[in-house]
Design a protein that fits this description.
It is built from ten helices and 15 strands. By secondary structure, it is an alpha/beta fold. The structure holds NADPH dihydro-nicotinamide-adenine-dinucleotide phosphate. The site of NADPH dihydro-nicotinamide-adenine-dinucleotide phosphate has 21 residues, from helix 1.
Length: 334
């Protein structure tokens, strides 16, 4: 089965081409880039047989049935809508679009066209996050009181482009990382944040966009979520903690692209190291998308998950901009 990749991006090169090729019988047959001069070289570097700067040329290829979109964020909407119109299944990068309204339009168009739509939220595909969710749902920590998300990292130099200086391309740490944290909270706790208070700053890297944010979300169950994202923290490390009335889970180094980190459960019986699967996060996400295309499963994160993570992230930004508590609305997807 052939895939069209839209966006000659770092994530495609570093993780997603390999994730597709890890699936038996799957390959990337097209790369689409906005740059005619760059696309042929990129295709050659990655062993992709067809290269174009015209999305419509790739979409006209009936031998390709799936499209993966990893262009800059402002392009996702039009590219996804074109792919859906061409009858292709779409796995789109986060944030799905610049607004939840656009994201909802994409998801509804896919539903009407009868194609699968997935959001590439990789963290919920990791063995560590799935194990933490299992510990919570099996009652090992009792009633969940709070979740703390530590996702303040240092943006590598090669990614210090549109993310830190181009609001129109969807730059800023909130659309980049807070969307992931919103998905993690929803995935782990099985409920949608209902309102948020927040602050954001530009602390040395962001130019015209925020590079750091802290926020607190309330959940319908009464649990509180504390979330910290940054591009400017070289040594902070990442992780999450879930605290319940019968135990706590400490997952260290797990807000990452690799299957690394540790998970520990602490209860009245003591401290216990929890083993988890070390599979590739991205290959797992693609495998579940492939299952969804065959009609047997849903994608790891579907379109509604992508709409909701974006809604939470943009509410964080609004709360920080206005200094008010912002209620998060999910419209018809509530
Ligand atoms: P990049 O900055 O690497 O690429 C984005 C676009 O910039 C490319 O599509 C390409 O445009 C252009 N570009 C990239 N490198 C060059 C270059 N050397 N010279 C000229 N143009 C270049 O973005 P990322 O890979 O970091 O992110 C892409 C998308 O993926 C974003 O939506 C992001 O949010 C998401 N992402 C998701 C991750 C996840 O884990 N789910 C992780 C990282 C990113 P063109 O295609 O037109 O040539």
């Amino acid at each position: 089965m052939n895939w069209i990749f839209v966006g000659a991006s770092t994530i495609a090169a570093q993780h997603m081409i390999g994730a597709v090729r890890a699936q038996s019988g799957h390959d990337v047959s097209w790369i689409v880039s906005g740059s005619a001069s760059r696309v042929s070289r990129w295709a050659g570097d990655h062993g992709i047989s067809n290269a174009t700067s015209e999305l419509s040329e790739a979409l006209a290829d009936d031998s390709a049935s799936a499209v993966y979109i990893s262009s800059t964020n402002e392009k996702h909407f039009a590219q996804a809508m074109a792919a859906i119109s061409a009858g292709k299944h779409v796995l789109c990068e986060k944030p799905l679009a610049l607004t939840p309204t656009e994201a909802a339009e994409m998801v509804k168009a896919a539903k009407n066209a009868g194609v699968v739509f997935g959001t590439n939220h990789h963290l919920r595909c990791s063995g560590s996050h799935r194990k933490v969710r299992d510990l919570i749902s099996s009652g090992r920590i009792g009633k969940v009181l709070s979740l703390r998300l530590f996702h303040a990292v240092h943006l590598p130099e090669n990614l210090q482009g549109w993310r830190i200086n181009d609001a129109s391309a969807g730059g800023g740490v909130i659309p980049d990382i807070t969307v992931h944290d919103a998905d993690v909270a929803r995935f782990l706790l099985g409920e949608d944040p209902q309102d948020v208070v927040a602050q954001m700053v530009s602390s040395g890297m962001g130019r015209g966009v925020e590079d750091s944010a802290m926020s607190v979300w309330s959940m319908p169950s009464g649990a509180m979520v504390m979330s910290h994202e940054s591009f400017t923290h070289p040594f902070a490390g990442s992780g999450l903690e879930v605290h319940g009335d019968a135990g706590s889970v400490f997952a260290t180094g797990v807000m990452t692209q690799e299957p690394v980190g540790t998970v520990e459960l602490v209860t009245a019986s003591g401290r216990e190291a929890i083993a988890f699967s070390g599979h590739s996060l991205y290959a797992q996400g693609v495998a579940e998308f492939v299952e969804a295309m065959s009609g047997t499963e849903r994608p790891a994160a579907d379109g509604v998950d992508g709409i909701k993570s974006l809604a939470v992230a943009l509410a964080v930004r609004q709360a920080a901009q206005t200094g008010t508590r912002v209620e998060i609305t999910y419209g018809e997807f509530a």
